[in-house]
Specification:
Length: 364
């Protein structure tokens, strides 16, 4: 049995305390932090600023182990998806979405999900457990490993942004998500600015204000409906925190401003939520909120009961929202061929027998 402590996910203070407790000088914490989060070390033997006897001692006590990569696939559009397996055999999916001058990593916060959103593939899974801060951070390390990002100047690589939009509801695992993002934002480590991090929630109203006050990251709301009776079906959490309460929490969000608008995600479902009347009501609801609307063509998955709105319907909806003064880009579907698109993530271990799962190609 491996009883080594994984140092990934410890705060600076915890790392220093643990090292001192085991006979190391306190300043070693800064060295190890840099090796882990700036240079991407996966083994203490790589830490050349530390003497070999101490490297050996560190390796006897601690580990820097990443999760096992069970699948590593690339879409025809260069979207990349990793299926990561932790020591307890639970798995999550992490997706990198490249753009011309930047790229976002879609990070999971839970194994499975409790929300059961009817249009979302992840919502068909049961919640298995929360991820630890170390497991959340490890997803970013695996991505940097795979993309060859270590050693590049800040903001010069492909991986520039993080979106907490993977499997799970981040605000139902807030303590670990907060710890992970604080470490990720540390300027002496991974150093991704809060302005480049977006946390997406289905509307856990009591936690929204705390998130804004403590983390100050960008906020995205999975809205998807403008009437409570429909949102109750699409996003069952709405029964607990209805639209009016959710939107008031958005108005009160501490980090919102003209420069940092709240993003409202709206998946386009044919004949369900895509009418002109829905668009006009959406504009009315958002009045007074510094907002933009991401219109998301629904991404199909096996067994779902919905259809995607037509291209003409989506753009007619977008025009109404745009004309009301809200930016409403239509999100390009990315990674659909490897089930990596919005709403398609589902741990491979949970897929039903016979489902079409992996259509992409393994990267070279």
């Amino acid at each position: 049995m491996n009883n080594k402590i994984n140092l990934i996910g410890l705060t600076r203070e915890e790392l220093a305390g643990l090292l001192v407790q085991n006979g190391f000088e306190k300043y070693r914490a800064g060295q190890i932090w840099q090796w882990m989060y700036v240079k991407g070390a996966t083994d203490f033997a790589q830490m050349t600023s530390i003497a070999k006897p101490q490297q050996q001692r560190l390796s006897e006590l601690f580990t820097l182990a990443r999760p096992h990569i069970a699948k590593d696939l690339v879409s025809f559009d260069k979207t990349r998806k990793w299926l990561l397996e932790f020591p307890d055999k639970n798995r999550v999916e992490t997706v990198f979405i490249p753009e011309e001058d930047r790229g976002a990593l879609c990070v999971s916060s839970q194994v499975g999900c409790t929300l059961s959103c009817s249009f979302c593939h992840t919502g068909t899974m049961k919640l298995v457990r929360n991820l630890t801060a170390g497991e959340i951070i490890a997803q970013t390390l695996v991505a940097r490993d795979g993309l060859g990002e270590w050693g590049k100047a800040r903001d010069s690589g492909l991986f520039t942004n993080i979106v907490m939009m993977g499997m799970g509801e981040p605000l139902y695992n807030y303590d670990q998500v907060s710890r992970a993002l604080t470490i990720i934002m540390d300027g002496e480590g991974i150093a991704i600015s809060k302005r480049r991090i977006t946390l997406s929630t289905s509307g856990v109203v009591p936690m929204i204000k705390r998130c804004g006050e403590e983390l100050g990251v960008n906020l995205a709301i999975s809205l998807h409906a403008v009437r409570d009776e429909l949102r109750d079906e699409l996003v069952p959490l709405n029964k607990k925190y209805p639209i009016a309460e959710l939107l008031q929490a958005c108005r009160d969000y501490p980090a919102a401003s003209n420069a940092r608008r709240i993003t409202f995600e709206y998946v386009m479902l044919k004949g369900v939520n895509d009418s002109d009347a829905d668009a006009h009501e959406l504009c009315r609801l958002l009045k007074g909120i510094h907002a933009k609307v991401n219109l998301i063509p629904w991404n199909p998955w096996p067994g779902a009961k919905y259809e995607t709105s037509s291209n003409n319907r989506i753009h007619a909806f977008a025009k109404i929202v745009n004309d009301a003064g809200y930016s409403s880009p239509v999100r390009a579907t990315r990674g659909q061929d490897i089930l990596a698109a919005c709403g398609q993530l589902k741990s491979d271990s949970e897929r039903k027998k016979g489902e079409k799962v992996w259509l992409g190609q393994t990267p070279p």
